[in-house]
């Protein structure tokens, strides 16, 4: 159930290499044709089951792999950790029909190393005719491949004095105890967000935590449920106008902006269907700009792993309002796009590795008398 493609063509090595793993011959052929027509990719092999996908990962070490969840024998979710073990630098894009079950499994896969997901149309005709799906598929695959080949780095002459690194410096960067933690994340974010919140520990009870994670609409409610189950702290999507309280984690609903407003002296959720910001909805910039306006130094901004520049403008607004902003460091980021952009713009108060962020925030919150 597999086929290999020789990479002998003169221009093949200039393209991003791809393995397609899907049990449908039609889907494999269609994806291969789209990738070939794009002029950016070279399909080195296809697989109809997870076992073959793992073997191809070890043999070809592709830049990216398109991975379906529903395959005979070894399914995509089971194959994923083996694929990443065989080829740690391969970026995996899940392409699957998002049933309720698959949504939950895909979210788990994204906490275990998958870099993104696209929802295949339910019917074969829908798959063939959907220009929106084809555009999304190629765009996400391109972002993943580009990032894996050329990860972001700081210019060699960049002066990092403005952004002291490490958790011990965080206390001196804030003038008042932050009571609102505003988080932005994208690719690689589900795992990073969950780890940070878990590591904050009891400090979450003294924080109102608001998360913008770039996700399709069907994912965010499940993401909130997983956080609540994993951490033991209430987590959910807020409704428009809801008063936001301490000890609860609020997750932006997929496909809608989540900001905040001040009404009758209380901070409330502001849910909006306004146009995407920097191609994102929900957008981190929307939340951060509102937090700067209504919370000032009572907010603490955190920008985690993700593609693009969403959050950079809002991080600048937070800094100007007197709030501190933490950026995840490059080494621990799946993709150092969003946090790297914040650092380059000199909006980061501190650059901290993922393993240290939660403890630093928890220690900061507990360092003030209650």
From TrEMBL:
Pfam families: CheB_methylest, Response_reg. It is an enzyme of class 3 (hydrolase). SMART domains: REC (SM00448). Residues 17-135 form the Response regulatory domain. Signal peptide: none annotated. Its main location: cytoplasm. It is found in: Cytoplasm. Keywords: Chemotaxis, Cytoplasm, Hydrolase, Phosphoprotein. Residues 179-368 form the CheB-type methylesterase domain. The active site is at 186, 214, 310. Its EC number is 3.1.1.61, 3.5.1.44. One of its GO terms (molecular function) is phosphorelay response regulator activity. GO terms for biological process: chemotaxis. GO terms for cellular component: cytoplasm. Phosphorylated by CheA. Phosphorylation of the N-terminal regulatory domain activates the methylesterase activity. The keyword Plastid does not apply. It comes from the Bacteria. Contains a C-terminal catalytic domain, and an N-terminal region which modulates catalytic activity. Involved in chemotaxis. Part of a chemotaxis signal transduction system that modulates chemotaxis in response to various stimuli. Catalyzes the demethylation of specific methylglutamate residues introduced into the chemoreceptors (methyl-accepting chemotaxis proteins or MCP) by CheR. Also mediates the irreversible deamidation of specific glutamine residues to glutamic acid. This is Protein-glutamate methylesterase/protein-glutamine glutaminase. It comes from Bosea vaviloviae.
């Amino acid at each position: 159930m597999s086929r290999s493609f020789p990479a002998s063509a003169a221009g093949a090595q200039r393209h991003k290499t791809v393995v397609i793993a899907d049990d449908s011959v039609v889907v494999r052929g269609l994806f291969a044709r789209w990738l070939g027509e794009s002029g950016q990719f070279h399909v080195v092999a296809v697989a109809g089951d997870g076992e073959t996908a793992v073997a191809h990962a070890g043999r070809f070490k592709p830049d990216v792999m398109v991975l379906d969840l529903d395959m005979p024998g070894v399914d995509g979710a089971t194959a994923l950790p083996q694929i990443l073990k065989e080829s740690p630098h391969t970026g995996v894009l899940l392409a699957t029909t998002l049933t309720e079950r698959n949504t939950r499994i895909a979210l788990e896969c994204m906490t275990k190393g998958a870099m993104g997901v696209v929802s295949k149309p339910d019917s074969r005709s829908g798959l063939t005719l959907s220009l929106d799906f084809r555009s999304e598929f190629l765009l996400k695959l391109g972002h993943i491949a580009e990032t894996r080949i050329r990860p972001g780095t700081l210019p060699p002459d960049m002066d990092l004095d403005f952004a002291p690194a490490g958790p011990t410096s965080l206390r001196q960067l804030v003038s008042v105890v932050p009571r609102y933690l505003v988080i932005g994340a994208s690719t690689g974010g589900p795992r990073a967000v969950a780890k940070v919140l878990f590591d904050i520990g009891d400090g979450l009870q003294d924080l109102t935590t608001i998360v913008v994670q770039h996700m399709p609409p069907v994912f965010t409610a499940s993401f909130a449920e997983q956080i609540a189950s994993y951490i033991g702290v209430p987590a959910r999507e807020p409704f428009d106008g809801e008063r936001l309280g301490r000890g609860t984690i609020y997750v932006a609903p997929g496909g809608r902006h989540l900001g905040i407003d001040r009404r009758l002296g209380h901070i409330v959720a502001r849910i909006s269907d306004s146009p995407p910001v920097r191609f994102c909805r929900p957008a981190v910039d929307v939340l951060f700009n509102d937090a700067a306006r209504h919370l000032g130094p009572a907010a603490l901004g955190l920008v985690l792993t993700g593609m693009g520049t969403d959050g950079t403008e809002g991080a600048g607004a937070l800094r100007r309002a007197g709030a501190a902003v933490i950026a995840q460091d490059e080494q621990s980021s799946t993709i150092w796009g969003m946090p790297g952009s914040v650092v380059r713009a000199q909006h980061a108060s501190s650059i901290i590795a993922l393993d240290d962020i939660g403890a630093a925030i928890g220690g900061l919150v507990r360092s003030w008398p209650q």
